[in-house]
# Entry
Amino acid sequence: MTRTLSGFRRVQLQLCVLLVGLGVLLPFGHVGAQAQRKTLKVLFIGNSYTFYNNLGDIVAGISRSKKDGPIIDATIATCPNEDLAWHLQNGPAVRALEKGGWDFVNIQETSLLPGGSQAPAGEGRGGAPARGRGGWIIGDPARPGGFYESAREWVKRIRAKGATPLLEMTWARRDNPGTMQEDLTKIFDTLGNELGVKVAPAGLAWQEARWRLRTVDLYFRDGSHPLQTGSYLTASVIYATITAHDPRGAASVIMGHPVSNDGVVDMEKTVPLVDLPQATARELQKIAWETVSARSKPVSSAPGTPSATASARAAAGR
# Structure
């Protein structure tokens, strides 16, 4: 049974969300087998990219639907539109971390990184021409209070609590992404290599899925947030990164608590968060596993350097 911790704070009329003990409904026959498997407690810190479709419940559901591997017990500490620097000072994330007992803590930064913006039409990074209507400019991760500084502090605190940190690489915007995914990949890999922290390459899996699965949309209508397909792909990547287990064979229907667009969790309801055709789920699982597996193998190029294929696909806008 999922329960909610008290102490939510309303900030600028937005509700920060802390959801503990995320679970999914299981057939009664699974109970005995589940009791024999190791449980990993995972804290998810982030914003709407995390609470859309209830990412924690989906990761937990994938783990529970598998016949082997650990079960993930997920907790979400999120607030709409807020970055990791804000979470260091406000909201439920610090309180949740302080309680301890975590095996992993997944941290998700704002999608453009702090200070990011959309360039006007015809203008890109440094005033260079941008494609089409203008590109997306990633915020400088090295600026004071930027991504690097905040993530370093989170990693230090997470390790002090005996947990393993995980950096969630987010994805490029749907329309006119330019070099956004290439930029994000370099930034996340640079920090991951510096700190010795694993990066969950969700953004690279999204890029690959957009190329392979032309009829499957991963994006909400705003071209930024995930549909259930996007959340399922992200969850599969995170599951594979944390457990080193192949997500293929996981359920294509995941039950959990619905979350409204302003981050309010309806604790009284259990609904299908993901309800995909099995063929679609299999393809997303495959892409997630191949993406994670490929990055675990030695490569000849420098860390954070996208492959020629990935660069070509980014240039093609897919």
Summary: The mean pLDDT is 84. The chain has one domain: 3-115+136-315. The longest helix spans residues 278-295. The first strand starts at residue 3 and ends at 4.
